[in-house]
Amino acid sequence: MIKKTLISISCLILLLSGCVQTETIEDIQIIESIGYDSAENKKYELTLATVMFSTNEGGIIKSETISDANFTGYGAAWNAQRETPKPTAAGKMMVALFGKDLAENGVDEILDGLKRHTTIGRMVDFCVIEGEAKELLEGEYPLGQTVSRYLKDLLEHHKKGNLPSTNFHEFMYKYYSKGQDSFMPLIQKQEDKIKLTGLALFKKDKHVDSIGADKLLIFKMLYEDISAGTYQASLENPAGYAAIEAVESSVEYKIKNGNTRPEIYISVNIKANINEVISSIKLENASDEKKLEALLEKDFMENGLQMIKHFQEEGIDPLGLGDRVRSKTRGWQSDKWQELYPHASVNLNVKVDIVETGISE
Hints:
- By secondary structure, this protein is α/β, with parallel strands linked by helices.
- It has helices at 2-19, 73-81, 100-105, 108-116, 133-137, 147-159, 168-176, 216-223, 286-314, 321-327, 334-340, and strands at 29-38, 44-53, 61-70, 88-89, 95-99, 125-129, 183-190, 193-203, 206-212, 229-235, 240-256, 263-278, 345-356.
- Strands 1, 2, 3, 4, 5, 6, 7, 8 and 9 form a 9-stranded mixed β-sheet that branches. Strands 10-11-12-13 form a 4-stranded mixed β-sheet.
- β2 and β3 (61-70) form a beta hairpin.
């Protein structure tokens, strides 16, 4: 009986596959990126960045943007596609962009449409742009790349450095979590370039705050383990600056009294190379190295605690402290945590180990 059932299912699949309309790659416009901006009358302006493979000229890629406004993303997409000579397909989408004005007003309705779209992969990158998504997607960029590939490469490059791990799947996981808030890379169009300017922080579905690019490594070292990153530290006594390259960093959290008076202990261990020092410290001996390590530790701890305190005051939790407490606390309740979070005691200890100081006389 089981064998007959399997045969019947196999036949049904073959029949269904014979009914599916197929298209060759030259006959479709492949959607690589999608952008959302605010429009009048509570509408969204949707922009699709597409590519077409030509049968001539050795299969050269031709790119095109199409856009329209409507009350839903799908409605805008349908309207936009009325001006295209070929059908569109979303199977190769790389990036979804949100204009800053729209992100500040909330992206819940757009997320609802994206998560229902079965052809959009969960590894798609989300970004907030300081300006309009349409303007960025319509731009022309160097290196002979489409705007989508240029932007995807930019994000992947920075994820290997100071940018914390983030994509569609990770954003949505945090979005539905009771103990953390979501974030996206924050970017800006500068003539024919796209620049990473920081991290856009969300409270539920609204972009409410941001972290500048100069503080990204501080955030990342608190958020996850690091295999690479760069940072310019401010030194005191003696005053100056040090440019470092983090080659390895690990973070560990310990929690006490999660349901009453939370105490959070964060330990960060960083191994770093020194690229440049503007200070009276000459790094000529082990004593100089120890002195510089102590100054770097002070900078990291002060900036890290200041960042966490700011998050507590703003009522946002991009580091997921609530989720970390939940994982180590029986009977954790999200409503109670919202009351405790602003007053939670956070202790940060950073240990810096200088691996290399470069070549000097």
